[in-house]
Specification:
- The protein is mostly helical.
- The protein has two domains: 52 residues; 220 residues, MetI-like (MetI-like fold), CATH 1.10.3720.
- A two-stranded antiparallel ribbon has the order 1-2.
- Strand 1 and strand 2 form a beta hairpin.
- Helix 8 runs antiparallel to helix 11 and helix 13 packs antiparallel against helix 14.
- The longest helix is centred in the first third of the chain and has 48 residues.
- The radius of gyration is 30 Å and the shape is globular.
- The relative contact order is 0.13.
Length: 316
Amino acid sequence: MFFSRRSRKNIRKPGAGGRRRGCGLKPSRTEAMRKIQAIVMQYVFMLSALTSVLAVTLICLFLFANGIPAINEIGWRDFLLGREWSPSDAPPAFGIFPMIVGSVYITAGAIAVGVPVGILTAVFLARVCPKPLYALISPMVGLMAGIPSVVYGFFGVVILVPMVRELFGGNGSSILAASLLLGIMILPTIISISESAIRAVPAELYDGAVALGASHERAVFAVILPAAKSGILAAIVLGIGRAVGETMAVIMVAGNQVRIPGGILQGARTLTANIVIEMGYAAELHREALIATGVVLFAFILLINLLFFSLEKKVL
């Protein structure tokens, strides 16, 4: 085929076009800017991570630097296993064993109330709830997470304490009332994280179980929940952390007696409540003993996290 002279003039030679129309920066310069942005963002992310690590490190240094000398002065055995807390006596006594027992009882009660209800609610929202009802329940669960602790405490004083007093006897301010209240308070954490874990399970697992003849309920509890156990365990750990660290609501409903409780209808004082109640007027060794109580609380939470971490590794 022969081309005309005009058509041969319109044919561009390879590489003769120069820069394309509409292009901004040269490809090499654009690529260099992208590399610089990636490096800058990498350092920003690293700085954010180091800030979190630094904050935890400073808190640990403060607690251990002020708490360990107080424990050594009081005596590890007398401090951890002592049953008398009387800072104003002469000589003073700083035994936190009753507070340790009270914290364990109230936290265990909150787990017994909040974990089953929270997981079943998450299953309902993720796999059973109709969309119109979900649009009503889901915002309420989110609203529960934003309610201040003192409001929960007022609810416990007005509703739970009289209910416990009328149904079970006693004065109402007890481990049972605090456990019920904390069980309600940890529900938003457990529900939201468990629901996200359940929704993250691939739909093929459920479809396969149903195709093999399993009912809807059996497919959910035998296939979906085991597949989401990692997220559910994380929700339980965060819920326990919320229960252990809660202070204001517990102070209002737990009774705050410094004694080893003989039952769930008796009052108790937790480690956090002991710090908040007495830190305002504490001085010298008394103040250091309260900081040492924070060290024990920190070790208690760390032990719970390590326990669930090892459990998660065995389960998975």
